[in-house]
Request: fold
Amino acid sequence: MNEYPIYYKRFLQFALGLLAIALVLGLLSAAAFSYPETFNKFLPFYQLRPFHTSAALFWIITASAGCILFYKNDVFTGIYVGNTSEKLFIMLWIGSILTIFCCYAFKKFGGREYWEFPPVLSIALLASWLVFMYSYFASWRISKNKKPLYVWMWSTGIFFFLITFVEQNLWLIPWFRSSFLKEITIQWKANGSMVGAWNQMIYGTALFLMVKISGDGTIAENKKAFFFYFLGLTNLMFNWGHHIYNVPNGSWIRNTAYAISMTELLIFINIIAGFKRKLDEQKRLKHIIPYRFLVAAEYWAFANLLLALLMSVPVVNRYTHGTHITVAHAMISTIGINTMILLGSIGYIINIDTKNQKIKNFINKAYWHAQVSLAAFGSSLVIAGIIKAYRTVAIENITFQEVMQPVVVMIKIFLLTGIWLAISLISIVVCYFRLLNNKRTIKIWKEVNTVMLVEEYDF
Amino acid sequence: MLVKIWVSLFLAFAVYSWLVYMHTEDRNNVPPPDRHIQAGWQLWQDKNCQSCHQLYGLGGYMGPDLTNVYSDKGAKYMQTFIKYGTGKMPDFHLNDSETQSLISFLAWIDKSGKSKIPASVVHWWGISSK
Reply:
Protein backbone atom coordinates (compact mmCIF):
# COMPACT_ATOMS: atom_id res chain seq x y z
CA MET A 1 0.00 0.00 0.00
CA ASN A 2 1.27 3.47 -0.87
CA GLU A 3 1.95 5.89 1.94
CA TYR A 4 2.74 9.52 2.30
CA PRO A 5 5.93 10.08 4.28
CA ILE A 6 5.21 11.30 7.81
CA TYR A 7 7.44 14.35 7.37
CA TYR A 8 5.03 15.74 4.76
CA LYS A 9 2.49 16.07 7.55
CA ARG A 10 5.01 17.57 9.95
CA PHE A 11 6.00 20.10 7.31
CA LEU A 12 2.40 21.22 6.89
CA GLN A 13 2.03 21.42 10.68
CA PHE A 14 5.09 23.63 10.76
CA ALA A 15 3.49 25.85 8.09
CA LEU A 16 0.25 26.07 10.12
CA GLY A 17 2.32 26.99 13.18
CA LEU A 18 3.84 29.85 11.17
CA LEU A 19 0.36 31.10 10.29
CA ALA A 20 -0.64 31.10 13.96
CA ILE A 21 2.57 32.96 14.89
CA ALA A 22 2.01 35.49 12.09
CA LEU A 23 -1.51 36.18 13.36
CA VAL A 24 -0.60 36.53 17.04
CA LEU A 25 2.45 38.69 16.32
CA GLY A 26 0.46 40.72 13.83
CA LEU A 27 -1.95 41.60 16.63
CA LEU A 28 0.92 42.45 18.97
CA SER A 29 2.45 44.62 16.23
CA ALA A 30 -0.83 46.49 15.79
CA ALA A 31 -0.98 46.98 19.57
CA ALA A 32 2.64 48.24 19.58
CA PHE A 33 1.72 50.62 16.74
CA SER A 34 -1.19 51.99 18.77
CA TYR A 35 0.57 52.11 22.16
CA PRO A 36 4.30 52.58 21.38
CA GLU A 37 5.20 54.16 24.73
CA THR A 38 4.12 50.99 26.55
CA PHE A 39 5.56 48.46 24.10
CA ASN A 40 8.92 50.24 23.64
CA LYS A 41 9.82 49.20 27.19
CA PHE A 42 9.76 45.46 26.46
CA LEU A 43 8.80 44.56 22.89
CA PRO A 44 9.16 47.45 20.44
CA PHE A 45 7.40 47.60 17.09
CA TYR A 46 10.68 47.39 15.13
CA GLN A 47 11.30 43.99 16.74
CA LEU A 48 7.73 42.68 16.44
CA ARG A 49 7.20 43.58 12.81
CA PRO A 50 9.99 41.32 11.43
CA PHE A 51 8.56 38.38 13.37
CA HIS A 52 5.14 39.06 11.91
CA THR A 53 6.18 39.69 8.31
CA SER A 54 8.63 36.77 8.19
CA ALA A 55 6.14 34.37 9.77
CA ALA A 56 3.46 35.45 7.25
CA LEU A 57 5.82 35.25 4.31
CA PHE A 58 7.20 31.87 5.34
CA TRP A 59 3.69 30.52 6.04
CA ILE A 60 2.77 31.22 2.43
CA ILE A 61 5.96 29.80 0.90
CA THR A 62 6.18 26.80 3.26
CA ALA A 63 2.52 25.83 2.81
CA SER A 64 2.78 26.26 -0.97
CA ALA A 65 5.86 24.03 -1.10
CA GLY A 66 4.24 21.58 1.36
CA CYS A 67 1.11 21.23 -0.80
CA ILE A 68 3.21 20.75 -3.93
CA LEU A 69 5.17 18.02 -2.14
CA PHE A 70 1.89 16.19 -1.51
CA TYR A 71 0.50 16.66 -5.00
CA LYS A 72 3.60 16.18 -7.12
CA ASN A 73 3.77 12.47 -6.42
CA ASP A 74 0.13 12.12 -7.32
CA VAL A 75 0.61 14.04 -10.56
CA PHE A 76 4.01 12.83 -11.71
CA THR A 77 4.64 9.30 -10.48
CA GLY A 78 1.64 7.98 -8.58
CA ILE A 79 4.08 6.70 -5.98
CA TYR A 80 3.78 8.23 -2.56
CA VAL A 81 7.29 7.87 -1.28
CA GLY A 82 9.69 10.47 -0.03
CA ASN A 83 13.36 10.73 -0.77
CA THR A 84 16.52 12.11 0.78
CA SER A 85 16.38 15.40 -1.09
CA GLU A 86 12.90 16.14 0.26
CA LYS A 87 14.04 15.41 3.81
CA LEU A 88 17.10 17.59 3.33
CA PHE A 89 14.96 20.43 1.98
CA ILE A 90 12.57 20.24 4.91
CA MET A 91 15.34 20.12 7.51
CA LEU A 92 17.27 23.02 5.96
CA TRP A 93 14.15 25.11 5.44
CA ILE A 94 12.79 24.65 8.96
CA GLY A 95 16.27 25.10 10.47
CA SER A 96 16.78 28.38 8.56
CA ILE A 97 13.42 29.79 9.64
CA LEU A 98 13.98 28.90 13.30
CA THR A 99 17.44 30.51 13.15
CA ILE A 100 15.89 33.64 11.62
CA PHE A 101 13.44 33.88 14.54
CA CYS A 102 16.32 33.45 17.02
CA CYS A 103 18.13 36.37 15.32
CA TYR A 104 15.03 38.55 15.73
CA ALA A 105 14.77 37.58 19.38
CA PHE A 106 18.34 38.86 19.89
CA LYS A 107 17.68 41.97 17.73
CA LYS A 108 20.02 40.85 14.97
CA PHE A 109 18.57 42.34 11.80
CA GLY A 110 19.46 42.58 8.14
CA GLY A 111 17.12 45.50 7.68
CA ARG A 112 15.66 44.71 4.26
CA GLU A 113 11.93 45.14 3.74
CA TYR A 114 10.20 41.78 4.35
CA TRP A 115 13.62 40.03 4.53
CA GLU A 116 14.75 41.52 7.79
CA PHE A 117 17.18 38.82 8.90
CA PRO A 118 20.99 38.88 8.60
CA PRO A 119 21.85 38.21 4.93
CA VAL A 120 24.09 35.24 5.71
CA LEU A 121 20.91 33.23 6.38
CA SER A 122 19.89 33.75 2.76
CA ILE A 123 22.56 31.19 1.88
CA ALA A 124 20.79 28.52 3.93
CA LEU A 125 17.40 29.41 2.42
CA LEU A 126 18.88 29.40 -1.06
CA ALA A 127 20.53 26.00 -0.56
CA SER A 128 17.28 24.64 0.80
CA TRP A 129 15.28 25.93 -2.19
CA LEU A 130 17.78 24.47 -4.65
CA VAL A 131 17.31 21.07 -3.01
CA PHE A 132 13.52 21.47 -3.27
CA MET A 133 13.89 22.36 -6.95
CA TYR A 134 16.03 19.30 -7.53
CA SER A 135 13.44 17.09 -5.84
CA TYR A 136 10.53 18.64 -7.77
CA PHE A 137 12.12 18.65 -11.20
CA ALA A 138 13.48 15.10 -10.72
CA SER A 139 9.88 13.93 -10.28
CA TRP A 140 8.79 16.19 -13.15
CA ARG A 141 11.26 14.50 -15.51
CA ILE A 142 9.93 11.03 -14.72
CA SER A 143 6.47 11.90 -15.97
CA LYS A 144 6.18 11.64 -19.73
CA ASN A 145 2.53 12.71 -19.81
CA LYS A 146 1.32 16.01 -21.17
CA LYS A 147 1.72 18.54 -18.38
CA PRO A 148 -1.53 20.19 -17.26
CA LEU A 149 -1.56 23.93 -16.60
CA TYR A 150 -1.15 23.58 -12.84
CA VAL A 151 2.19 21.85 -13.41
CA TRP A 152 3.30 24.79 -15.56
CA MET A 153 2.23 27.13 -12.78
CA TRP A 154 4.02 25.23 -10.02
CA SER A 155 7.19 24.96 -12.11
CA THR A 156 7.09 28.66 -13.00
CA GLY A 157 6.54 29.67 -9.38
CA ILE A 158 9.34 27.47 -8.07
CA PHE A 159 11.78 28.68 -10.73
CA PHE A 160 10.94 32.37 -10.39
CA PHE A 161 11.16 32.21 -6.62
CA LEU A 162 14.80 31.24 -7.12
CA ILE A 163 15.41 34.07 -9.63
CA THR A 164 13.75 36.73 -7.50
CA PHE A 165 15.35 35.49 -4.29
CA VAL A 166 18.80 35.82 -5.86
CA GLU A 167 17.86 39.24 -7.26
CA GLN A 168 16.69 40.28 -3.81
CA ASN A 169 20.22 39.65 -2.55
CA LEU A 170 22.11 41.46 -5.32
CA TRP A 171 22.58 44.42 -2.97
CA LEU A 172 25.40 42.44 -1.37
CA ILE A 173 27.47 43.18 -4.49
CA PRO A 174 28.89 46.73 -4.05
CA TRP A 175 28.10 47.83 -7.65
CA PHE A 176 24.38 47.57 -6.90
CA ARG A 177 24.86 49.95 -3.94
CA SER A 178 26.60 52.67 -5.95
CA SER A 179 23.29 54.49 -6.39
CA PHE A 180 20.39 54.48 -3.94
CA LEU A 181 17.85 54.74 -6.76
CA LYS A 182 19.33 51.68 -8.46
CA GLU A 183 19.34 49.77 -5.20
CA ILE A 184 15.75 50.57 -4.23
CA THR A 185 14.48 49.96 -7.76
CA ILE A 186 16.03 46.49 -7.91
CA GLN A 187 14.87 45.71 -4.38
CA TRP A 188 11.26 46.41 -5.39
CA LYS A 189 11.63 44.74 -8.74
CA ALA A 190 12.63 41.54 -6.90
CA ASN A 191 9.99 41.87 -4.18
CA GLY A 192 7.19 42.61 -6.65
CA SER A 193 8.08 39.70 -8.92
CA MET A 194 8.52 37.35 -5.97
CA VAL A 195 4.87 37.87 -5.01
CA GLY A 196 4.02 36.85 -8.57
CA ALA A 197 6.21 33.75 -8.14
CA TRP A 198 4.46 32.42 -5.03
CA ASN A 199 1.10 33.36 -6.56
CA GLN A 200 1.93 31.01 -9.44
CA MET A 201 2.52 28.19 -6.96
CA ILE A 202 -0.68 28.96 -5.05
CA TYR A 203 -2.94 29.53 -8.07
CA GLY A 204 -1.53 26.32 -9.54
CA THR A 205 -2.63 24.54 -6.37
CA ALA A 206 -6.09 26.15 -6.63
CA LEU A 207 -6.40 24.92 -10.20
CA PHE A 208 -5.27 21.43 -9.20
CA LEU A 209 -7.96 21.38 -6.49
CA MET A 210 -10.63 22.55 -8.93
CA VAL A 211 -9.72 19.73 -11.30
CA LYS A 212 -9.85 17.17 -8.49
CA ILE A 213 -13.03 18.46 -6.90
CA SER A 214 -15.00 18.94 -10.10
CA GLY A 215 -13.52 15.93 -11.84
CA ASP A 216 -13.13 18.05 -14.98
CA GLY A 217 -9.55 17.91 -16.29
CA THR A 218 -10.26 20.19 -19.26
CA ILE A 219 -10.23 23.29 -17.07
CA ALA A 220 -6.43 22.86 -16.78
CA GLU A 221 -5.87 22.27 -20.46
CA ASN A 222 -7.95 24.73 -22.47
CA LYS A 223 -6.51 27.66 -24.46
CA LYS A 224 -8.22 30.34 -22.39
CA ALA A 225 -6.64 29.01 -19.19
CA PHE A 226 -3.21 29.07 -20.83
CA PHE A 227 -3.81 32.62 -22.12
CA PHE A 228 -4.45 33.82 -18.57
CA TYR A 229 -1.43 31.90 -17.32
CA PHE A 230 0.82 33.76 -19.77
CA LEU A 231 -0.88 37.04 -18.88
CA GLY A 232 -0.10 36.33 -15.22
CA LEU A 233 3.49 35.48 -16.12
CA THR A 234 3.85 38.77 -18.03
CA ASN A 235 2.58 40.63 -14.97
CA LEU A 236 5.01 38.72 -12.75
CA MET A 237 7.89 39.86 -14.95
CA PHE A 238 6.99 43.49 -15.73
CA ASN A 239 4.28 44.72 -13.35
CA TRP A 240 6.41 45.56 -10.32
CA GLY A 241 7.00 49.20 -11.22
CA HIS A 242 3.86 50.54 -9.54
CA HIS A 243 5.72 50.08 -6.23
CA ILE A 244 8.18 52.78 -7.24
CA TYR A 245 6.14 55.38 -9.13
CA ASN A 246 7.57 58.06 -6.85
CA VAL A 247 11.21 56.97 -7.23
CA PRO A 248 12.72 59.49 -9.68
CA ASN A 249 14.18 57.07 -12.21
CA GLY A 250 13.34 56.68 -15.89
CA SER A 251 9.69 57.17 -16.83
CA TRP A 252 9.97 54.15 -19.14
CA ILE A 253 10.08 51.85 -16.07
CA ARG A 254 6.98 53.39 -14.55
CA ASN A 255 5.02 53.59 -17.78
CA THR A 256 5.86 49.99 -18.71
CA ALA A 257 4.51 48.89 -15.33
CA TYR A 258 1.39 51.03 -15.78
CA ALA A 259 0.70 49.59 -19.25
CA ILE A 260 1.26 46.00 -18.10
CA SER A 261 -0.82 46.38 -14.95
CA MET A 262 -3.77 47.56 -17.02
CA THR A 263 -3.76 44.18 -18.80
CA GLU A 264 -5.06 42.86 -15.47
CA LEU A 265 -8.36 44.42 -16.55
CA LEU A 266 -8.73 41.32 -18.75
CA ILE A 267 -8.41 39.12 -15.66
CA PHE A 268 -10.92 41.35 -13.89
CA ILE A 269 -13.41 41.12 -16.75
CA ASN A 270 -12.87 37.37 -16.92
CA ILE A 271 -13.78 37.03 -13.23
CA ILE A 272 -16.98 39.01 -13.77
CA ALA A 273 -17.86 37.04 -16.92
CA GLY A 274 -17.34 33.78 -15.04
CA PHE A 275 -19.48 34.72 -12.04
CA LYS A 276 -22.70 33.14 -13.31
CA ARG A 277 -20.98 29.86 -14.12
CA LYS A 278 -19.28 30.03 -10.73
CA LEU A 279 -22.63 30.53 -8.98
CA ASP A 280 -24.07 27.44 -10.70
CA GLU A 281 -20.96 25.50 -9.75
CA GLN A 282 -21.25 26.77 -6.19
CA LYS A 283 -24.76 25.32 -5.88
CA ARG A 284 -23.45 21.94 -7.00
CA LEU A 285 -20.29 21.84 -4.90
CA LYS A 286 -21.12 24.02 -1.91
CA HIS A 287 -21.04 21.09 0.51
CA ILE A 288 -17.31 20.58 -0.17
CA ILE A 289 -15.27 22.60 2.34
CA PRO A 290 -12.06 23.04 0.28
CA TYR A 291 -14.21 24.35 -2.56
CA ARG A 292 -15.67 27.01 -0.26
CA PHE A 293 -12.19 28.28 0.51
CA LEU A 294 -11.49 28.53 -3.22
CA VAL A 295 -14.70 30.49 -3.75
CA ALA A 296 -13.78 32.87 -0.93
CA ALA A 297 -10.36 33.39 -2.54
CA GLU A 298 -12.09 34.22 -5.83
CA TYR A 299 -14.23 36.94 -4.23
CA TRP A 300 -11.23 38.39 -2.43
CA ALA A 301 -9.23 38.29 -5.67
CA PHE A 302 -12.01 40.32 -7.29
CA ALA A 303 -11.90 42.97 -4.54
CA ASN A 304 -8.13 43.05 -4.44
CA LEU A 305 -7.73 43.31 -8.18
CA LEU A 306 -10.05 46.31 -8.17
CA LEU A 307 -7.84 47.91 -5.50
CA ALA A 308 -4.65 46.98 -7.41
CA LEU A 309 -5.97 48.42 -10.66
CA LEU A 310 -6.86 51.69 -8.95
CA MET A 311 -3.46 51.85 -7.21
CA SER A 312 -1.70 51.31 -10.52
CA VAL A 313 -3.19 54.48 -12.02
CA PRO A 314 -0.50 57.14 -11.39
CA VAL A 315 -2.92 59.89 -10.35
CA VAL A 316 -4.44 57.57 -7.74
CA ASN A 317 -1.09 56.09 -6.72
CA ARG A 318 0.20 59.57 -5.90
CA TYR A 319 -2.27 59.56 -3.01
CA THR A 320 -2.28 55.90 -2.01
CA HIS A 321 1.48 55.19 -2.05
CA GLY A 322 2.93 55.03 1.45
CA THR A 323 -0.49 54.73 3.09
CA HIS A 324 -2.41 51.91 4.75
CA ILE A 325 -4.23 51.27 1.47
CA THR A 326 -1.04 49.49 0.40
CA VAL A 327 -1.18 47.48 3.64
CA ALA A 328 -4.84 46.63 2.95
CA HIS A 329 -3.86 45.40 -0.51
CA ALA A 330 -1.08 43.24 0.95
CA MET A 331 -3.29 41.86 3.75
CA ILE A 332 -6.21 40.97 1.46
CA SER A 333 -3.76 39.35 -0.92
CA THR A 334 -1.99 37.27 1.74
CA ILE A 335 -5.03 36.44 3.90
CA GLY A 336 -8.01 36.67 1.55
CA ILE A 337 -6.41 34.98 -1.44
CA ASN A 338 -3.25 33.07 -0.49
CA THR A 339 -4.32 31.85 2.95
CA MET A 340 -7.84 30.89 1.79
CA ILE A 341 -6.45 28.77 -1.05
CA LEU A 342 -3.82 27.18 1.18
CA LEU A 343 -6.37 26.38 3.91
CA GLY A 344 -8.61 24.89 1.24
CA SER A 345 -5.69 22.83 -0.01
CA ILE A 346 -4.69 21.54 3.43
CA GLY A 347 -8.37 20.80 4.11
CA TYR A 348 -8.37 18.73 0.94
CA ILE A 349 -5.20 16.90 1.98
CA ILE A 350 -6.61 15.99 5.39
CA ASN A 351 -9.88 15.14 3.74
CA ILE A 352 -11.92 17.43 5.90
CA ASP A 353 -15.20 16.50 4.21
CA THR A 354 -15.08 12.96 5.54
CA LYS A 355 -14.82 14.08 9.18
CA ASN A 356 -17.75 14.06 11.54
CA GLN A 357 -20.41 16.73 11.34
CA LYS A 358 -19.24 18.45 14.51
CA ILE A 359 -15.81 19.18 13.00
CA LYS A 360 -17.33 20.31 9.73
CA ASN A 361 -19.74 22.66 11.50
CA PHE A 362 -16.85 24.07 13.51
CA ILE A 363 -14.78 24.77 10.37
CA ASN A 364 -17.81 26.23 8.65
CA LYS A 365 -18.46 28.64 11.50
CA ALA A 366 -14.79 29.71 11.67
CA TYR A 367 -14.79 30.14 7.88
CA TRP A 368 -17.69 32.62 7.94
CA HIS A 369 -16.26 34.52 10.88
CA ALA A 370 -12.96 34.80 8.96
CA GLN A 371 -14.70 36.22 5.88
CA VAL A 372 -16.75 38.83 7.73
CA SER A 373 -13.90 39.89 10.03
CA LEU A 374 -11.51 40.15 7.08
CA ALA A 375 -13.97 42.48 5.33
CA ALA A 376 -14.08 44.71 8.43
CA PHE A 377 -10.30 44.43 8.88
CA GLY A 378 -9.54 45.39 5.26
CA SER A 379 -12.08 48.23 5.29
CA SER A 380 -10.55 49.79 8.42
CA LEU A 381 -7.15 49.80 6.69
CA VAL A 382 -8.54 51.33 3.52
CA ILE A 383 -10.26 54.08 5.53
CA ALA A 384 -7.03 54.68 7.50
CA GLY A 385 -5.20 54.93 4.16
CA ILE A 386 -7.72 57.38 2.69
CA ILE A 387 -7.43 59.62 5.76
CA LYS A 388 -3.62 59.54 5.64
CA ALA A 389 -3.55 60.13 1.88
CA TYR A 390 -5.88 63.13 2.10
CA ARG A 391 -4.07 64.74 5.03
CA THR A 392 -0.59 64.15 3.57
CA VAL A 393 -1.21 65.42 0.06
CA ALA A 394 -4.03 67.93 0.43
CA ILE A 395 -3.09 69.75 3.65
CA GLU A 396 -0.02 71.97 3.47
CA ASN A 397 2.50 72.28 6.33
CA ILE A 398 1.08 69.54 8.49
CA THR A 399 3.32 67.53 10.82
CA PHE A 400 3.49 63.74 10.79
CA GLN A 401 1.85 63.59 14.23
CA GLU A 402 -1.06 65.71 13.00
CA VAL A 403 -1.44 63.50 9.93
CA MET A 404 -1.54 60.38 12.07
CA GLN A 405 -3.96 61.51 14.83
CA PRO A 406 -7.19 60.32 13.12
CA VAL A 407 -5.34 57.40 11.49
CA VAL A 408 -4.43 55.92 14.88
CA VAL A 409 -8.15 55.73 15.74
CA MET A 410 -8.69 53.57 12.66
CA ILE A 411 -5.68 51.44 13.61
CA LYS A 412 -7.37 50.69 16.94
CA ILE A 413 -10.49 49.52 15.06
CA PHE A 414 -8.18 47.51 12.82
CA LEU A 415 -6.69 45.91 15.95
CA LEU A 416 -10.14 44.88 17.24
CA THR A 417 -11.23 43.40 13.92
CA GLY A 418 -7.79 41.75 13.74
CA ILE A 419 -8.47 39.95 17.04
CA TRP A 420 -11.73 38.62 15.60
CA LEU A 421 -9.98 37.53 12.38
CA ALA A 422 -7.08 35.90 14.26
CA ILE A 423 -9.44 33.90 16.50
CA SER A 424 -11.33 32.63 13.43
CA LEU A 425 -8.22 31.59 11.53
CA ILE A 426 -6.42 30.13 14.54
CA SER A 427 -9.51 27.99 15.21
CA ILE A 428 -9.11 26.49 11.75
CA VAL A 429 -5.34 26.12 12.24
CA VAL A 430 -5.79 24.23 15.55
CA CYS A 431 -8.40 21.94 14.04
CA TYR A 432 -6.22 21.16 11.00
CA PHE A 433 -3.16 20.70 13.19
CA ARG A 434 -4.92 18.09 15.31
CA LEU A 435 -6.31 16.29 12.29
CA LEU A 436 -2.83 16.12 10.78
CA ASN A 437 -1.75 14.35 13.97
CA ASN A 438 -4.38 11.65 13.59
CA LYS A 439 -3.53 8.37 12.00
CA ARG A 440 -5.54 7.54 8.90
CA THR A 441 -6.22 11.19 8.27
CA ILE A 442 -4.81 11.42 4.82
CA LYS A 443 -6.59 9.83 2.00
CA ILE A 444 -6.04 10.08 -1.68
CA TRP A 445 -9.05 11.33 -3.55
CA LYS A 446 -9.83 9.04 -6.37
CA GLU A 447 -11.33 10.40 -9.55
CA VAL A 448 -13.95 7.85 -10.41
CA ASN A 449 -17.18 9.26 -11.75
CA THR A 450 -18.09 10.80 -8.47
CA VAL A 451 -16.19 13.56 -6.76
CA MET A 452 -16.63 12.23 -3.27
CA LEU A 453 -15.02 8.80 -3.48
CA VAL A 454 -11.85 8.58 -1.47
CA GLU A 455 -9.21 5.94 -1.08
CA GLU A 456 -7.53 5.67 2.29
CA TYR A 457 -3.86 5.20 3.06
CA ASP A 458 -2.23 4.44 6.36
CA PHE A 459 0.77 6.03 7.96
CA MET B 1 4.39 26.32 -29.05
CA LEU B 2 3.81 26.87 -25.32
CA VAL B 3 7.49 26.36 -24.61
CA LYS B 4 8.39 28.90 -27.33
CA ILE B 5 6.10 31.52 -25.80
CA TRP B 6 7.53 30.84 -22.36
CA VAL B 7 11.14 31.12 -23.55
CA SER B 8 10.39 34.32 -25.50
CA LEU B 9 8.83 35.90 -22.43
CA PHE B 10 11.76 34.84 -20.29
CA LEU B 11 14.24 36.36 -22.76
CA ALA B 12 12.24 39.60 -22.73
CA PHE B 13 12.38 39.51 -18.92
CA ALA B 14 16.16 38.99 -18.99
CA VAL B 15 16.69 41.93 -21.39
CA TYR B 16 14.36 44.16 -19.38
CA SER B 17 16.15 43.25 -16.14
CA TRP B 18 19.49 44.12 -17.73
CA LEU B 19 18.10 47.49 -18.88
CA VAL B 20 16.85 48.22 -15.38
CA TYR B 21 20.21 47.30 -13.84
CA MET B 22 22.19 49.43 -16.28
CA HIS B 23 19.98 52.46 -16.72
CA THR B 24 18.54 53.25 -13.33
CA GLU B 25 20.89 56.04 -12.45
CA ASP B 26 20.64 59.20 -10.42
CA ARG B 27 19.72 62.09 -12.65
CA ASN B 28 21.13 64.40 -10.01
CA ASN B 29 24.54 62.74 -10.47
CA VAL B 30 24.87 61.88 -6.81
CA PRO B 31 28.31 60.33 -6.23
CA PRO B 32 28.52 56.76 -4.85
CA PRO B 33 28.45 56.52 -1.05
CA ASP B 34 31.75 57.02 0.77
CA ARG B 35 32.72 54.92 3.82
CA HIS B 36 30.96 57.26 6.21
CA ILE B 37 27.69 57.03 4.31
CA GLN B 38 28.06 53.27 3.95
CA ALA B 39 28.49 53.00 7.73
CA GLY B 40 25.25 54.94 8.16
CA TRP B 41 23.51 52.71 5.61
CA GLN B 42 24.68 49.63 7.49
CA LEU B 43 23.45 51.12 10.75
CA TRP B 44 20.08 51.85 9.14
CA GLN B 45 19.82 48.15 8.33
CA ASP B 46 21.27 46.82 11.60
CA LYS B 47 18.76 48.82 13.65
CA ASN B 48 15.96 47.83 11.27
CA CYS B 49 14.93 51.45 10.74
CA GLN B 50 12.83 50.61 7.65
CA SER B 51 10.52 48.67 9.92
CA CYS B 52 9.07 52.01 11.10
CA HIS B 53 10.29 54.55 8.51
CA GLN B 54 9.98 54.81 4.79
CA LEU B 55 12.37 55.87 2.06
CA TYR B 56 10.50 56.85 -1.09
CA GLY B 57 7.34 55.56 0.56
CA LEU B 58 8.75 52.05 1.08
CA GLY B 59 8.99 50.67 4.59
CA GLY B 60 6.86 50.68 7.74
CA TYR B 61 4.26 53.34 8.54
CA MET B 62 4.92 53.87 12.23
CA GLY B 63 7.14 56.89 11.65
CA PRO B 64 7.44 59.47 8.86
CA ASP B 65 9.05 59.04 5.44
CA LEU B 66 12.67 60.16 5.84
CA THR B 67 13.67 60.57 2.18
CA ASN B 68 13.84 64.35 2.42
CA VAL B 69 14.06 64.86 6.17
CA TYR B 70 17.56 66.34 5.77
CA SER B 71 16.45 69.23 3.56
CA ASP B 72 13.09 69.63 5.33
CA LYS B 73 14.23 69.63 8.96
CA GLY B 74 18.01 69.94 9.01
CA ALA B 75 20.84 68.04 10.68
CA LYS B 76 20.34 69.46 14.22
CA TYR B 77 16.71 68.36 14.34
CA MET B 78 17.66 64.88 13.10
CA GLN B 79 20.49 64.62 15.61
CA THR B 80 18.14 65.19 18.55
CA PHE B 81 15.67 62.56 17.36
CA ILE B 82 18.31 59.97 16.52
CA LYS B 83 20.33 60.44 19.67
CA TYR B 84 17.58 60.49 22.28
CA GLY B 85 14.49 59.01 20.62
CA THR B 86 10.98 60.21 21.49
CA GLY B 87 8.01 58.76 23.31
CA LYS B 88 7.21 56.78 20.16
CA MET B 89 10.72 56.22 18.87
CA PRO B 90 13.01 54.13 21.08
CA ASP B 91 16.42 55.43 22.15
CA PHE B 92 18.98 53.27 20.33
CA HIS B 93 21.86 54.61 22.43
CA LEU B 94 23.92 55.58 19.38
CA ASN B 95 27.22 57.37 19.92
CA ASP B 96 28.14 60.63 18.15
CA SER B 97 29.98 58.94 15.32
CA GLU B 98 27.09 56.58 14.61
CA THR B 99 24.60 59.45 14.74
CA GLN B 100 26.68 61.42 12.22
CA SER B 101 26.96 58.41 9.91
CA LEU B 102 23.19 57.99 9.92
CA ILE B 103 22.68 61.68 9.17
CA SER B 104 25.23 61.46 6.31
CA PHE B 105 23.34 58.49 4.87
CA LEU B 106 20.02 60.35 5.01
CA ALA B 107 21.63 63.47 3.55
CA TRP B 108 22.96 61.34 0.67
CA ILE B 109 19.47 59.96 0.01
CA ASP B 110 18.01 63.46 0.15
CA LYS B 111 20.22 64.44 -2.80
CA SER B 112 18.81 61.65 -4.98
CA GLY B 113 15.39 63.29 -5.41
CA LYS B 114 12.04 64.18 -3.85
CA SER B 115 9.75 61.53 -2.37
CA LYS B 116 6.58 63.51 -2.95
CA ILE B 117 5.78 63.21 -6.61
CA PRO B 118 4.60 66.57 -8.04
CA ALA B 119 1.05 66.69 -9.41
CA SER B 120 2.33 68.17 -12.68
CA VAL B 121 4.09 64.97 -13.77
CA VAL B 122 1.27 62.58 -12.93
CA HIS B 123 -1.39 61.94 -15.56
CA TRP B 124 -4.15 59.42 -16.23
CA TRP B 125 -2.10 58.07 -19.12
CA GLY B 126 1.14 57.70 -17.17
CA ILE B 127 4.01 59.67 -15.67
CA SER B 128 6.10 62.20 -17.55
CA SER B 129 9.71 62.89 -16.69
CA LYS B 130 9.18 66.64 -16.11
Observations:
- Chain B touches chain A through 61 residues (CB under 8 Å).
- The two ends of chain B are 43 Å apart (CA to CA).
- Residues 2-23 of chain B form the longest helix (22 residues).
- Residues 78 and 102 of chain B are 9 Å apart (CA to CA).
